[in-house]
TrEMBL record:
Catalytic residues identified in the record: K191
Name of this protein: DegT/DnrJ/EryC1/StrS family aminotransferase
Entry-linked InterPro entries: DegT/StrS_aminotransferase, PyrdxlP-dep_Trfase, PyrdxlP-dep_Trfase_major, PyrdxlP-dep_Trfase_small
UniProt GO BP: polysaccharide biosynthetic process
GO molecular function: pyridoxal phosphate binding; transaminase activity
Similarity field: Belongs to the DegT/DnrJ/EryC1 family.
Gene3D superfamilies attached to this UniProt entry: Aspartate Aminotransferase, domain 1 (3.90.1150.10), Type I PLP-dependent aspartate aminotransferase-like (Major domain) (3.40.640.10)
Lineage, opening ranks: Bacteria, Pseudomonadati, Bacteroidota, Bacteroidia, Marinilabiliales
């Protein structure tokens, strides 16, 4: 059996090597490395897939900042989001003088608990920022209802969920990131659609808003050397756009591979005491950017799997409200008990497009061995005492 990788980026590259190599060479031959037609072509093709306007940018963190700027959020404005997420979700808000207001997450889906949002809305609230974590989206139908009721913007952090669909009660479906006013995406290499470096994108259904976003991402420019607003320098370079354009053709195939691997994990890890597999929501599909378990003895399980040659990751060991940098928000241990429990119990298994059946079988067998071994030892200790 080949070495198990947590994310096999090189193995995936080999399946598209000729196309990717040629795409890179095309850019090199053109010598148009920044703001080329290759970027515009990728934006157009991704926009056609999503059904919205796409503005490429430097990374997912920049996408969030650009979204806040485009919506005109000002220092002191409050943005409701969750503390169980990557730091970029709130980092850019704080840098702009906005105040993150945290809501705990749902214990099954890891996403913002929509039942708690309304109580957190104040006169200063300007936006709701759901994070679609691990490839499954938040309950967007309820979030849209609240945003309409209170006149709030909805900014989707869809960096981990490209290709996921929100499923509405009337049966309609819509790609994650295109449901709210603005969607933000990351092309970090391990994402569902990953570049060979950093990259990101902002989505907007509204044409006028999309024009503002495009201007902000390019120094606030409306024409060459004419600046109509304060902007930033956040651009996807042409080589990354060329790579992403190739990989976009295989996105659906890659998502199916992730879903098949997840289905195998689901089937063979179900019913183990002390272990909880991902819970599907009826309002979302799942593209499994990560396959994340909840394990009562997480650290022991992680060490056991590591000794078996199985890499795992913890996303995320400490929620943001407990991080030193965000103590000024005046949250305390115990404020968000579900997020805090997640930090102690979540464990992500290998999840990528190149997992082989033998590898999946070995991973599952090793997890089961851990729990069987634990039960045997517990029984032995009980007999001795």
């Amino acid at each position: 059996m080949q070495t198990i990788h947590f994310s096999d980026l090189y193995g995936q590259y080999l399946t598209m090597k000729d196309e990717i190599d040629e795409a890179i060479q095309d850019v090199i031959r053109s010598a148009q490395f920044v703001k080329s037609k290759k970027v515009a072509e990728f934006e157009e093709k991704l926009g056609a897939y999503l059904g919205t306007n796409v503005i490429a940018c430097g990374n997912g963190t920049d996408a969030l900042q650009i979204a806040f700027m485009a919506l005109g959020l000002k220092p002191g404005d409050e943005v409701i989001t969750s503390p169980f997420t990557f730091v970029a979700t709130v980092e850019t808000a704080v840098l702009m003088g906005l105040k993150p207001v945290f809501i705990d997450v749902d214990p099954d889906t890891f996403n913002i608990d929509v039942s708690q949002i309304e109580n957190a809305i104040s006169a200063k609230t300007k936006a709701i920022l759901p994070v679609h974590l691990f490839g499954q989206c938040a309950n967007m139908e309820e979030i849209l209802r609240l945003s309409e009721k209170y006149g709030l913007w909805v900014i989707e952090d869809a960096c981990q969920a490209l290709g996921t669909e929100s499923v509405f009660s009337n049966g309609a479906r819509q790609k994650t990131g295109t449901v709210g006013n603005v969607g933000c995406n990351s092309f970090f290499p391990s994402k569902n659609l990953g570049a060979f470096g950093d990259g990101g994108a902002v989505y907007a259904n509204d044409e006028q808003l999309a024009t503002v976003i495009r201007s902000i991402a390019n120094h606030g420019m409306k024409a060459k050397y004419e600046y109509e607003r304060i902007g930033v320098n956040s651009r996807l370079d042409s080589i990354q756009a060329a790579i992403l354009e190739v990989k976009l053709k295989y996105l659906e195939k890659h998502l199916v591979a992730r879903q098949k691997a997840a289905a195998y994990y689901d089937e063979h890890l179900a019913g183990i005491d002390g272990l909880k597999t991902p819970v599907p929501a009826n309002y979302s599909t799942h593209t499994f950017h990560q396959y994340t378990l909840q394990a009562d003895r997480r650290d022991d399980l992680q060490e056991f799997l590591n000794n078996k040659g199985i890499p795992t990751m913890v996303y995320y060991p400490k929620p943001l409200h407990l991080q030193e940098a965000y103590r000024f928000l005046d949250y305390r241990n115990g404020d968000f008990p579900v997020s805090e429990k997640m930090g102690k119990t979540v464990l992500s298994l290998p999840m990528h497009t190149e997992l082989e059946m033998g590898q999946l079988e070995y991973i599952v067998r090793s997890v089961k061995e851990f729990y069987g071994f634990s039960l045997s030892r517990k029984a032995a200790k009980s007999n001795l005492s």
